[in-house]
Amino acid sequence: MDKIIVEGGWRLSGQVKISGAKNAALPILAAALLVDGWCEFTNVPQLRDVDSIKQLITHLGAQVETPEPGVVRINAGGLCNHEAPYDLVRKMRASVLVLGPLVARLQKARVSLPGGCAIGSRPINLHLRGLQRLGARIELEHGYVEAAAEKLCGADIYFDVVTVTGTENMMMAAVLAEGVTVLKNAAREPEIIALAEVLTQMGADIQGAGTSEITITGVSALQPVKVAIIPDRIETGTFMTAAALTGSRIEICDCEPTHLNAVIHKLRLTGAQIDIRKDSLTIQGRDEIASIDIKTLPYPGFPTDMQAQFMVLMSVAKGLSVISETIFENRFIHVSELKRMGADITVSGNTAMVRGMAALSAAPVMATDLRASASLILAGLVAKGRTEVQRVYHLDRGYEAMEKKFAALGAAIKRLPV
Ligand code: EPZ
């Protein structure tokens, strides 16, 4: 297990290139299970989570090749195993995304229940109810979900709460179903639109992706595609927050600014100057950061995956910030580590009160989940002294070579094997 050492106090400068989006790559690689033939995906981020889903897809009987870094080819013509075992699913809960494609292609699936994780219980009841609405029989036993359906039939599916992977799973289950499926209260994230575009290129009939009502008309078969993964909006927001935090001016390239309207709006309110271009942006942080409130919401609201990073910014802002986390029930785990670095944060239920202060102090800290890890790296950039972040395997799940990208921007940061 590696650790990352950060010496605080350095301004950043220069350019950083954004990698492909983890949360687009995972459902899109799973969608290849729907196709008999070679699909090719480019701009695929090199992440632990991507490795996990490639391993699972191989286990299911598909061929997976990585001819060069960032390129993944999948041929699910030989798909034969309908079981996603616990030892693979526990590594990455988004493995549940193979559920819809397996039932659609093999008429059955046996997928380990993902269980909870650090940020919450993360149930998949809405995924299962959606499959039942499409005619699948669902049984839960020994920690596994068993789903079976000779033929899935289109239906109206209403999501009690907005679920990103739930929407993705049901889209992938419905594209080969008989008849019309309407997803209501569907997620609207850019990753949903990206998946719908890939499925449409494969030959699916999908209308309304990006809105809260998506209509899928089943087709008989899908064709192989070659597509690029969209840029990672959360990685983009993380580097923007780093610039705001350190009063730096950096250029962020190969990104999609229109996917970050809420984050850009909030960063501008803190005083950052942001100039947007088609696939890049420049952000200039200020020495005095204004405190503002944020509330996490489904897209296009402020993303929960940016909450921890923003909390670091508010920890050194001028004033009081109220941060409300409405998506996950336990996504303040980073608070205790930030308080060890001197942050003044009080948590009550799903609300954190952050009293900004002059500076954080470096400390040895422990990463607990993906975005909490990123927040600790950000804190290290401005804390006085040397911060050591342990258990950075969490970081490697969702950020491609983060410490190298920060070092190229001038940060005093390095990774050490433990
Ligand atoms: C996706 O998780 C993302 N992961 C998460 O990113 C992200 O935080 C989350 O969406 C919210 O935007 C991927 O796309 C791989 P949800 P997902 O289903 O789909 C409840 C990261 O850091 N719910 O949208 O698992 C659930 O408990 C990760 O990159 C049910 O109750 O999240 C939560 O409170 C973390 N029943 C809310 O819905 C269900 O069947 C939103 O969860 C499904 C979800």
Q: Explain this structure to me?
A:
- This protein has 418 residues and is of the alpha/beta class.
- The chain has two domains: 2-19 and 231-417, Alpha-beta prism (UDP-n-acetylglucosamine1-carboxyvinyl-transferase, Chain), CATH 3.65.10.10; 22-228, UDP-n-acetylglucosamine1-carboxyvinyl-transferase, Chain, CATH 3.65.10.10.
- The chain has 14 helices and 24 strands.
- Helix 1 runs parallel beside helix 7 and helix 6 (164-174) runs parallel beside helix 7 (190-202).
- The longest helix is centred in the middle third of the chain and has 14 residues, at 233-246.
- The mean pLDDT is 96.
- The structure holds ligand EPZ.
- The site of ligand EPZ has 23 residues, from helix 1, helix 5, helix 6 and helix 12.
- Ligand EPZ is lined by residues 22-23, 26, 94, 120, 122-127, 161, 163-166, 304-305, 327-328, 370-371, 398.
What's the structural blueprint in terms of helices and strands?
Layout lengths: L1 E6 L5 E5 L4 H10 L6 E5 L5 H12 L3 E6 L2 E5 L7 E2 L1 H4 L9 H8 L1 E5 L12 H9 L3 E5 L2 E5 L7 E3 L5 H11 L5 E5 L5 H13 L2 E3 L5 E5 L8 E3 L4 H14 L2 E5 L7 H9 L3 E4 L3 E5 L9 E2 L11 H9 L4 E5 L9 H7 L3 E5 L2 E5 L8 E3 L3 H13 L3 E5 L2 H6 L3 H7 L3 E6 L1
Parallel strand pairs: 2-15, 3-14, 6-7, 10-11, 18-19, 22-23
Antiparallel strand pairs: 1-23, 1-24, 3-5, 4-5, 7-9, 8-9, 11-13, 12-13, 15-17, 16-17, 19-21, 20-21
Helix pairs in contact: 1-2, 1-7, 4-6, 5-6, 6-7, 8-10, 8-12, 10-12
